[in-house]
Amino acid sequence: MNSIMDCIADNRLMMLDILSTVVGIVYIVLEYRASIWLWFASIIMPLIDIVLYLEAGLYADFGMAIYYAVAAVYGFIVWRYGRKRGQKTAGEMPVTHYRRKLIIPSAAVFALAWIGIYGILVRFTDSDVPLTDSFVNALSIIGLWALARKYVEQWLIWIVVDVVCSVLYAYKGIPFKAMLYGAYAVIAVFGYVRWKRMMTAPEA
């Protein structure tokens, strides 16, 4: 009986993994093209991931999936209605550089988030990958905010996140998600080059 239940659980995990991966492919293509529609895919994917990560025991990722779904709404609003210093045209925000004065505050937020998430995982969960899980999620907070602000350097942040996540998900038995993030890392390199060409009013 236990064997049957384990088989059902494994199949459910794989189906969620595949479904999330398909939506993830759509998402990265839209992000590469700097299409505002990426935010809709960014709502759907984490809703699937909430269940996937919970069943896989990736508790920090589970919490971050909830954050991603909420943050996607913010990202859409900012891309559509937000403005940047020096922006003269109406419509979506332009792609620009990460502002230098934001680097130190961003690093501080990342460090605090990493320590905080790690502490929660160690104290309140049975996670066997608390250090890595907390690292990618803390860095993802910065990456998602940089994406919402349409900073070209967000791609560099995601390269690090994607490489680490690819290894982490392979270790946790989520192969399709692992392959997806491996592909993300490669696409992020090309995305960085494409977005640099799209910049119209860099923020120094």
UniProtKB/TrEMBL annotation:
Membrane topology: Multi-pass membrane protein
Highest taxon of the lineage: Bacteria
Annotated localization: Cell membrane
This protein's UniProt keywords: Cell membrane, Membrane, Transmembrane, Transmembrane helix, Transport
Keyword Oxidoreductase: no
InterPro entries: NMN_transpt_PnuC
Protein name, per record: Nicotinamide riboside transporter PnuC
